[in-house]
Amino acid sequence: LPAPRPPRAAPAAALDRLPPGAALAVVGLSGLGALANEVAWTRALALLIGPTAYAFAFIVSSVIAGLAIGSAAAALVADRVRRPGFVLGLVELAAAGACLMVVEAVGRLPVVVATLVRDNADRMGRLMALEFAGVFALLAPPCVLFGAAFPLAVRLAPGAAGPGGALGRAYAWNTAGAIAGALLAGFVALPRLGLQGTLLAAAGVHALAGLGAVALSRPGLARLAVAFGLLALVAWPAARAGEWDRALLAGGAYKYAAHAPPDRLEEELRAGELLYYREGAAATVSVKRLGGTLSLAVDGKVDATNSGDMLTQRLLAHLPLLLHPRPREVCVIGLGSGMTAGSALAHAGTRVDVVEVSPAVVEAARLFSQVNRNALDDPRLSVRVGDGRNHLLLTDRRYDVLISEPSNPWMAGVSALFTRDFFRLARERLAPGGLFCQWAHMYNMAPADLRTVVGGFTDVFPGAALFLVNEGDVLLVGGSDGLPRPDAASLAARLDAPAVRDDLAGVHVRSAYGLASLFALGPPDLARWAAGAPRHTDDRPVLEFRAPRSLHADTSLANWEDIERAQRTTPPPEPFLALTAAPTAEAHLERARMLEGARSFRLALAAFRRAAALDPRSLPALEGMARAALLGGRAAEAEAELRSLAAGLSPVGARVALALLFHNQDRPAEALAALEEVARLDAGHLRALLLGAEVQAGAGNMAAAQGLAEAALRLAPDDADAWALLAYARFAAGSVAEAVALAEEAVARDARCGRALEVIAVARARLGDRGGARRAFESLLAAEPDGWSHLNNFGVFELESGRPRAAARLFEEAVALNPANGQGYRGLRETARALGDARLAERAEAGLARLGAP
After folding, report:
1. 432 preceded by cis ω (within 30°)?
2. Are strands 351-356 and 381-385 parallel, antiparallel or unpaired?
3. What are residue 473's DSSP bridge partners?
């Protein structure tokens, strides 16, 4: 007879057996919650450390490492766990708690990340290492618990075919849950609940799985009490976390903190009124308003504004459409603010397809309707929400002009719109004679990387040209049949079309020279310049990994000089040569104003200098030199040049410009001395009289200011500034009603005369006409939205009117526009007291302490 077999020990799971299928449901829910978390973590952390390929690698590697560590650790002890069902429930509850701790941490991290970036911006390798360490520390705890749940579930899963069958079933359910989690998070939860809501819901899935496992594992009352106690502990972080500060998340800490003063990091990130914020499936899109500037940001990176970016956004359309002989079908990849599409529609007979990957950007673009010509309501515009490359792959339409204005190639995935393969695809979608215009940037891009972009472009478009728009932006234009060469007369005629003329006038482009002055490099110089650069292709996307390393590098000047060196070999082709061969002083002034409007003050100063060299008596050129030098940090240099001109070729105009320079540097005595010299040489110089009145008023010499304003009015009775200065002087002298009448004379001549509107607002408030004062303040801010002193005065008015919340908004905007604004911080402190807002009071006191103000 065979020997009797030893009795088989009951497995530990028998002491704590879940109902059939329950373990599979738990592991499925665990997979669902884990992948939903990963999707939302990726989007949330992209707002903090930037949407780069490196950031996504940090997140994915942290998740995978955490899962591996948790699974390995749990596998070592799973066979010795006597209550695996109960322990599985506790692990899931702990995972929910760890997820909620991440939610709380994310809300507190923007300023922490900003500090990290500010301290390490010039050491990109170190910064990336610190970011990776931080991501791992944040995500590893919940991921270790996600991983630990799987071996425990395998022990409990039914498996008719033995351990292999149990493993296969658990793996299948976990995978199915993970797929469901990714789909639900990306397409359902994120668009409806947002990032924080999605993370809270994912944590709730883990909590549900944990409670289910505990409840079904036949626990006693003690274990139920433990489970509910742990659930209460899990819920505590969610209860105390509060809603994330959207203004901070939209502030782009990973990029803009590098340029912020250390003691104003939070203020810089929070600056501006958040008008729009949406955490969509593709990206987080926000719109802020600060003064008169609207800015649209994608994942915290500003992609469009209605101020310094307008020249680039408009020329992206006008340059290729003016070069093309008869543009009809146009495609714009990337909507942004909608300005490029609107400018394309300014050309008669055009029909425009816009392809935009994010529906949130389409919504946000409506806030720019005043500057994008209401493009989204134009029946000639068709907006397609989708991927630009896919559109070009699938469409059978051929375009006369194709424009690509994506975000920066350091953003993950965006570099696919800078590959040589994409440029080749774009060429295939051009109609005969069609043109392709590609935007690229010189800021935060190493010269070698810019040449990589240009090299790929010239490989596909050998006859391409590069146009320098400003200190930061370039446009590459190539054609299916080479670059067309319109004659100067036809170009001027097309520029004179009313809609085109008006659209370009907003960015100071008024002539064919303005366009031709942008030309920098053409064939063969452009291809030769980029010949040795590595190519960025679909199968070797070098920019995806190189571009983020220059995220904080100041590369604009290096790229500009690199292009300038290449310019010296071959003259530009016709018609650019004919248009730029002998520019007049007025032509240089046009280019200078274009650059000044684009906030390229260094280049604007050079263009104003060229204008002054041709016409030393040109007051616009001389005053432009003073303005550009002040804003570009080169005031001492401009002062020396203007003094030289004042002693020689331009004794009057240069002295007026010097007075302007001194006045803006708070040097009133020197400003008045310069103006006295002007009066000696030309007693009837209107600009000198007006500037003199302004300087005297600023110095508190109201009688002198009044006399100069009256002298100016005798010369120019319809000059609104003269009426406004006289009104200001009479108001300061105590003649309030008379001041209002004089200021209204100014407004009758110029409805946007800021000084006159300010007098009316303050004077009517003093006279007790609160309704009239509020209307005047609102008109004043519409005329001069960046006037921080106007915001201060309006804030005081609102505070005295019993509207502290409105006052707080005005004072906050005032100190954001001028961080040295002590009056604004004092107003903020008074407003905080009226509201009982401790946080606002703390910010006000911190600002005053930084300024050393009482």
Report:
1. no
2. parallel
3. 441
Whole-angstrom distance, CA of residue 9 vs CA of residue 16: 15
Classified as helix, coil or strand, 564 is: helix
The closest alpha carbon to 399, from 480, 288, 469, 336, belongs to 480
- 548, 46 in Cβ contact below 8 A? no
Q: Residues 308, 272: contact at Cβ < 8 Å? A: no
SS3 at position 731: helix
Q: Name the residue type at position 550.
A: S
- Do the beta carbons of residue 213 and residue 85 sit within 8 Å? yes
Residue 40, amino acid: A
Where does residue 852 rank: exposed (0-12), middle (13-18), buried (19+ CB within 10 A)? exposed
* Bridge partner list, 243: none
Q: Is 822 left (phi over 0), alpha (psi -120 to 50) or beta?
A: alpha
Is the bond leading into 524 cis (omega within 30 degrees of zero)? yes
**Burial tier of 777 (Cβ tally within 10 Å: 0-12, 13-18, 19+):** buried
* Amino acid in the structure at residue 703: A
Q: What pTM, to 2 d.p., does this model score?
A: 0.91
3-state secondary structure 457-526: HHHHCCCCEEEECCCCEEEEEEEECECCCCCHHHHHHHHCCHHHHHHHHCCCCCCHHHHHCCEEECCCHH
Task: Evaluate whether 28 touches 176 at the Cβ level (below 8 Å).
Answer: yes
Determine the Cα–Cα distance for residues 551 and 510; give it in Å rounded to an integer. 35
2: number of Cβ within 10 Å: 4
Residues 6+ apart with CB under 8 A from 472: 441, 442, 443, 556, 600
Instruction: Name residues whose C-beta falls within 8 Å of residue 743's C-beta, 6 or more positions apart in sequence.
Output: 723, 724, 727, 731, 756, 757, 759, 760, 763
Q: What is the mean pLDDT of each run of 10 residues along the chain (854 residues)?
A: 41 56 89 96 95 95 96 87 83 92 92 93 93 97 94 76 74 92 93 93 92 75 65 66 88 91 86 93 92 95 94 97 95 97 96 96 96 96 96 95 95 95 97 96 96 97 95 95 82 92 95 92 92 95 95 93 85 80 93 96 96 96 97 95 94 96 95 95 94 94 95 96 96 94 96 95 94 95 93 95 94 93 94 92 90 84
In the block, tokens 């990336």 appear at 128
**CA–CA gap between residue 51 and residue 63 (Å, rounded):** 17
CA gap 343, 381 in Å, rounded: 12
Rounded CA separation 208/235 (Å): 12
Q: What are phi and psi of 801, to 5 degrees?
A: -85, 5
DSSP 846: H
Where does residue 837 rank: exposed (0-12), middle (13-18), buried (19+ CB within 10 A)? middle
